[in-house]
């Protein structure tokens, strides 16, 4: 979709705006809206039948009364300062937010879209908890048309961003379906095998259910002793660390970023003391039992692991088979909730019972799973790329419309479509 530019432009005198339509007025945010402080909500919080209490992430509680009733732009004061919100109706907003009382010359929806383009990084404090000063916000310079044109631009953006958002949601749903399919492929392969006609038997294990009759059902500790990484950790002793060290020092974030194969770490070790005796060679499997619990990884480098991991020094099967069992997550059933609530240690990991095919069948299963996962991962990557392109398109369209780089005054919604005109306690679609 392409739109014309305005017939005539002028220099706005504002660096981040550049040229703007000649008939637009250059002014400050305070000329369009009076900025007010939010307030603590604890004294007015109720469990039901109240007014929305809004923070930077949107409504999250209810209040017995409201701070303001009407159309308003909400802006972050502390913490999340770059996520403006649009509200229409009675609301209460927290003391880490500003709300605005709009002038008669301002369209709230237009101003909301404009605010998503503000260069908040130019005004916020560069600290661990960013903050915005009321005066800095009030003096942000803008170029705006009259109220009728503002409303026309807002209506155009309501319609077009809703269309883009619907496409984004479709792609996100596809990504979730692909994740589910990925888990289903792994789970079926490690519990049922590849032959749909093979005789089955009851495994006696809840997460396994029926398995091929010729498979053994074994505890992981029968395949290898399960041992924990080294403790204490050398975090406070810089003598251990060296940019040219021979061993990678594995941390949870390294595993999270590894996608199952550890090829590098953010820190390396040059000195191996008694507290760092757990050295892994390339090809060894380990599993996190702290932080992101239950995450399996195979190292491709020489590495040292700490006591937030367990490993399998005597594993008698291809470690990739055990890795995909852990990746499926089903084997953790009954051990607690996945995530930080999952309780894993050497005993619980060693006690997990799995279905065990022959070595040849394991290799066939791994070959099949890897082939299928490559297909699914490629589709997921394409969908993720599509989401990024759509999000970029959305941002670019908003910026072009509110700064006058495109002229949408002649735009009309397609026949049969509805344009969003009012949103309560949230942001426009």
Descriptive account of the structure:
The strands form seven sheets. Strands 4-10-8-9-6-7-5 form a seven-stranded mixed beta sheet. Strands 15-23-20-21-17 form a five-stranded mixed beta sheet. It has a four-stranded mixed beta sheet with strand order 18-16-22-19, with no helix packed on it. It has seven helices and 24 strands. The chain has about 425 residues and is an alpha+beta fold. Helix 3 packs antiparallel against helix 7.
> Under the CATH scheme, which class of the largest domain?
Alpha Beta
Globally, the shape reads elongated
Radius of gyration, in Å, reads: 29 Å
Proportion in helices = 25-40%
Which architecture of the largest domain per CATH? Alpha-Beta Complex
Pairing-aware structural class of the strands and helices?
A: alpha+beta
Give descriptors for this structure.
2 domains; Adenine-n6-DNA-methyltransferase TaqI, Chain A, domain 2; disordered C terminus; 429 residues; alpha+beta; 7 helices; 24 strands; elongated
Short description:
This protein has 429 residues and is an alpha+beta fold. It has helices at residues 108-115, 134-138, 147-192, 252-256, 319-328, 346-350, 359-402; strands at residues 9-11, 19-21, 25-28, 33-37, 45-46, 51-55, 58-63, 68-76, 85-93, 97-102, 141-144, 200-202, 210-212, 216-219, 227-228, 247-249, 261-262, 267-269, 279-280, 285-288, 296-299, 303-304, 309-311, 353-356.
Topology:
Layout (H helix, E strand, L loop, with lengths): L8 E3 L7 E3 L3 E4 L4 E5 L7 E2 L4 E5 L2 E6 L4 E9 L8 E9 L3 E6 L5 H8 L18 H5 L2 E4 L2 H46 L7 E3 L7 E3 L3 E4 L7 E2 L18 E3 L2 H5 L4 E2 L4 E3 L9 E2 L4 E4 L7 E4 L3 E2 L4 E3 L7 H10 L17 H5 L2 E4 L2 H44 L27
Helix pairs in contact: 1-3, 3-5, 3-7
